Amino acid sequence: MKINYHPFNLKFRHPFTISKGTKTHQPTLVVELEHFGIKGYGEAPAITYYNITVDDMIADLEAKRSMIERFAFTDPERFWHFLHHLLPQNPFLVCALDIAAWDIFGKMSGRPLYQIWKGDPADNPITDYTIGIDTVEKMLAKVEEKPWPIYKIKVGTAYDIAIVKAIREKTDAVIRVDANAGWDLDTALKLIPQLKELGVEFVEQPLAKDNWEGMKVLYQESSLPLYADESCVFENDVEKCVGHFHGINIKLTKCSGITPALRMIKNARKLNLNVMVGSMNESTIGSAAIAHLLPFIDHVDMDGPLLLEEDLATGIEYDNGKIIYSNAPGLGIAYKGLFKK
Predict the structure, then answer these.
(1) Which of 7, 119, 126, 301 is least crowded, fewest Cβ atoms below 10 Å from its Cβ?
(2) CB-count burial class (<10 Å; 0-12, 13-18, 19+) for 326
(3) Has residue 20 got a pLDDT over 90?
(4) What gap in Å lies between CA 303 and CA 306, rounded to an integer?
(5) Which is it for the CA torsion 237, 238, 243, 248, positive or negative?
């Protein structure tokens, strides 16, 4: 196996703000694996508050390059277990390599990934479109600029209800809110009934990721479904969410790839938790990995390519929230390098 990699700093269409801060570009690392002439691609965006940078991923990849290149690849699950033990402190890099391995595996079998997993795309959920925190006027302008059937509204401000009320007056689309751990329990108990009155569908990560006692109270009191994001990172977090959340939001980059995500979905189903897969502003490469999981989940947030002014691949299309596959094998994408859309 041969390894190549490409770091990028992808520009957003608009500055992207959540309760944790603002960014104008998304740093990301694309890895390219080649196995007997077949190339596979994977991606891992760098997220500041998880303290893993693109440079960190490159340093770890170079340090372990010879061991990875000597690995006798047969299937992605076995490769993931090897990587998981080789790079225990860098799930982001493991994710990128795992996605690339699945891309190769799909190409070897001549099938798109969702077909390998026996998924039926007939009832795939449609993706939401994220509106980052801004002034009410600018958030409304973003809604007007992008008519969409489902919006995910970032909250965690002193004027959250004003934001959602203004957007609700502008559209009858489905609205979800994501506090990114930006509320305390008292705030959540106060705001959630008002959000329900405004027709909000569910709330994502209302409290701090480790506020399990607060979430237990909120779970019992909330009139809206609650989804874990920052509180559900790895496989062993899924069971913790029972009795605290109604569903989980899986991020491939955080959980370390497609391989563990498939197990998390299966476990969540056994535990009667709803399942969402979310975006970390990936380009089309990482977003395609999410797309193949659609037949197995309830909700999806894979709007990275819509939020970015620049992209790295082609192969998935968006039709008013519906995801259209290329049906080429593996991820079904064609890596282009950096290009403006």
Answers:
(1) 7
(2) middle
(3) no
(4) 5
(5) positive
